Automatic annotation (TrEMBL):
Keyword Cell inner membrane: yes
Catalytic activity: ATP + protein L-histidine = ADP + protein N-phospho-L-histidine
Species of provenance: Thalassospira xianhensis MCCC 1A02616
Residues covered by the Histidine kinase domain: 372-591
Subcellular location per the Swiss-Prot or TrEMBL entry: Cell inner membrane
Organism phylogeny: Bacteria, Pseudomonadati, Pseudomonadota, Alphaproteobacteria, Rhodospirillales
Protein name: C4-dicarboxylate transport sensor protein DctB
Transmembrane segments: 12-29, 291-310
UniProt cross-references to SUPFAM superfamilies, sorted A to Z: ATPase domain of HSP90 chaperone/DNA topoisomerase II/histidine kinase (SSF55874), Homodimeric domain of signal transducing histidine kinase (SSF47384), Sensory domain-like (SSF103190)
Role of this protein: Member of the two-component regulatory system DctB/DctD involved in the transport of C4-dicarboxylates. DctB functions as a membrane-associated protein kinase that phosphorylates DctD in response to environmental signals.
Membrane topology: Multi-pass membrane protein
């Protein structure tokens, strides 16, 4: 049942067991930690929502006061200098006692306090100028002021909420209420949880940890410090950073402050630039991970012992199975070697078949071009006969001094015949199968020169685009030339039905060369009837042909497709917009050879 155990030594099984046990312990500890963290995060989110609601309730309880007081006619009169200050003070004192706020006061357009609820106390705001406070400038700009800081008169921190006083559409003063949130902080501290609120600059202003108050969650910039000093927001406080390291050891959602590690959640408080942080100590997660690690280690140790015991039982049977397995593997190896040999033989045969098809295609092309080639050779031969007869006549008449021009003409004609036969010899040679740098322009020139007679005889005009550079590809010249011959001859066959006497119908073959940084593109188009949509997808299939029986076997384009693919390129056929078919060949350029 456990025969595989006998194939391993005791040391290897022990090592594997230790590795697997370590992996299992790691997975168990990690999954347990993730589960514990997920549970703590859910709890933290619920606690955050609760703390936010209590904070918002404490603020919203007094947020209406400046708005209501700003609409009292006595307050409007006193701030414009038409009312009685004592009446305004009494009114503010009465309203403030009912609301329970720390202070309620009125500021004129110059920033001076003209009336306050604490007018009769040593820390009275009356006569104090608060034009430097942001809540004054915000309210005087027509907005609600919202500012937390340490009072410059009382030295006690609080939240200042302000509202503009308007008369006849003009802002004439500001009403401000100060809330001291000490009781809220005490409730947070009594709860035994770690929670704090930071302002837009990252200064901790409300916290359940007294030693964190007026510390910053990040170092302040010079501009932030200058603004805080200008607003006298936290007078007398150093505003030192809390040395907070977020994501220690690359772990998301963790926070390290000093030697303490916390799982933290943060929630922006809507309607302000404050952030509410809730921190959960990681002790609970560490305890859960330790417990799971111990349990998993004990279980893994027992499993390793059981595996070693079973291994000893299977050791005897393993030797028998090993001999049987060895014989089976030997048979498989023999079969695999035979299959590899057969595959290599098949590949060699296929390569040879393709080469033979290329050569057969060349010979077939030569056979079809034989009439044009014979005509090309017969013309020089007839001329040579004429010149020879003329030379013989000159010799008989003793005019040997006039033989020079005749001999030069005969020499030129023999060179032309040699050029024709040389092209035939070059085209008919077999491919060596060796890939080398091939100039596409030179290969096309060879093919065009070879087919020029046939093109002329069939009344076909060949047009080439102007391309100044050279396109060098890694290929076999013989097979590349065969590709061009196949396509051009197919184009001639496609235009065979065009009437040469029709002035509107002209046989034309257009060759366009282009190149990018790493690719050469050759387009060979004709002015024939084009390719039927139903046959476009079958053009490159073996033995598919649209020609009449006896005119072709359907291997030319199939061989062409295989050659182009062997050189790492692609070929496709489509119909041109103006009529006729186009074959587009793309081949990779040799790096650093394009000119």
């Amino acid at each position: 049942m456990f025969y595989w155990l006998s194939t391993y030594s005791r040391a290897s099984l022990s090592f594997a067991g230790i590795v697997i046990a370590g992996l299992v312990v790691w997975l168990a500890v990690n999954s347990t930690g993730n589960l514990a963290i997920s549970q703590l995060q859910q709890t933290a989110q619920a606690r955050l929502a609760l703390y936010e609601s209590t904070l918002r309730a404490a603020v919203d309880r007094y947020r209406y006061l400046p708005y209501v007081v700003a609409r009292n006619h006595e307050i409007v009169d006193v701030v414009t200098g038409n009312g009685t200050v004592d009446i305004a003070n009494q009114y503010l004192q009465k309203v403030n006692q009912r609301s329970g706020a720390a202070a309620l006061y009125v500021i004129d357009r110059s920033g001076n306090t003209v009336a306050a609820s604490n007018w009769n106390t040593p820390d009275s705001f009356v006569g104090q100028n608060y034009s430097f406070r942001p809540y004054f400038t915000e309210a005087f700009a027509g907005q609600e002021g919202f500012f937390y800081g340490i009072g410059v008169t009382t030295g006690r921190s609080g939240l200042f909420i302000s509202h503009p006083i308007a008369k006849s559409g003009e802002i004439v003063g500001v009403v401000a209420v100060k809330l001291e949130l000490d009781e809220l902080e005490r409730n947070w501290q009594d709860g035994g949880e770690t929670v704090f609120v930071s302002d837009a600059d990252g200064v901790i202003m409300l916290t359940s940890r007294g030693d964190w108050k007026y510390r910053t969650i990040r170092p302040l910039t010079d501009q932030e410090r200058e603004r805080i000093l200008r607003n006298r927001q936290y007078s007398g406080q150093e505003l030192l950073p809390l040395n907070m390291d977020e994501n220690p050891s690359g772990e998301d959602g963790l926070l390290e402050i000093g030697n303490e590690r916390f799982l933290f959640e943060v929630k922006p408080i809507s309607g302000s630039e404050w952030n509410l942080f809730y921190l959960t100590p990681m002790d609970y997660v560490s305890e859960r991970r330790t417990s799971v690690m111990l349990i998993t280690l004990i279980g893994s140790g027992l499993i390793i012992l059981i595996v070693l015991f079973l291994r000893e039982r299977e050791l005897k049977l393993a030797s028998q199975r090993k001999s049987m397995e060895f014989a089976r593997i030997q048979a498989l190896n023999t079969r695999l070697e035979q299959e590899i040999t057969e595959r290599r033989k098949t590949e060699a045969e296929l390569r040879g078949t393709q080469d033979e098809l290329v050569q057969a295609g060349k010979l077939a092309a030569l056979g079809q071009m034989s009439a044009a080639i014979a005509h090309e050779i017969n013309q020089p031969i007839a001329a040579i006969r004429t010149f020879c007869a003329s030379a013989k006549l000159m010799l008989e008449r003793g005019k040997s001094e006039n033989l020079g021009p005749n001999i030069e003409q005969i020499s030129a004609l023999t060179e032309r015949m040699g050029s024709i036969t040389g092209q035939l010899k070059t085209f008919s040679r077999k491919s060596t199968g060796v890939l080398e740098p091939v100039n596409i322009r030179a290969a096309l020139d060879n093919v065009i020169q070879l087919l020029s007679s046939q093109l002329h005889n069939e009344g076909c005009v060949l047009e080439q685009s102007d391309f100044a550079g050279d396109l060098i590809v890694h290929a076999d010249l013989v097979r590349i030339e065969q590709v061009f011959v196949n396509i051009i001859r197919n184009a001639l066959d496609a235009m065979a039905s065009i009437d040469d006497k029709d002035p509107k119908a002209k046989k034309r073959i257009i060759i366009d060369l282009s190149g990018t940084r790493d690719q050469a593109t050759i387009r060979i188009s004709d002015t024939g009837p084009g390719i039927g949509e139903e046959t476009l997808g079958l053009l490159f299939d073996p033995f598919f042909t649209t020609k009449d029986p006896g005119q072709g076997v359907g291997l030319g384009l199939s061989v062409t497709y295989g050659i182009v693919r062997d050189f790492g390129g692609s070929i496709r056929a489509y119909n041109r917009a103006g009529g006729g078919a186009c074959f587009e060949i793309q081949l990779p350029l040799m790096r650093g050879t394009q000119k």
